[in-house]
Amino acid sequence: MINWLSKKISILGAGGSGISAAKLGSYAGAKVLLSDTKSNIHDININNVSVEWGGHSNKVLESDFIIKSPGIPNNIDIIKKAKTKNIKIISEIEFAGSFTKLPIIAITGSNGKTTTVELLNNIFKNAGYNSILGGNVGTPFSENVLCEISKKYKDGLHLLELSSFQLEQTENLSLEIGCILNISEDHLDRYKNYEEYINTKLKITKLINNNGFIVYNNNDETLRKKISGTKNSVSFSYTDLYKTNINTDNIHLKGKHNHSNIAAILAISNIYNISENIIINTLENFKSLPHRLEFIKKINGISIYNDSKATNIRSMVAAIDSFRENIVVVVGGLDKGNSNFLSAMEKFEDKIKFISCYGESGEKIFNMIKTKFSCCYNKLFSKAVSEAILNSKKDDVLLLSPGCASYDQFGSYIERGNKFKQIIVGLT
Question: pTM of the prediction?
Answer without folding.
Answer: 0.84
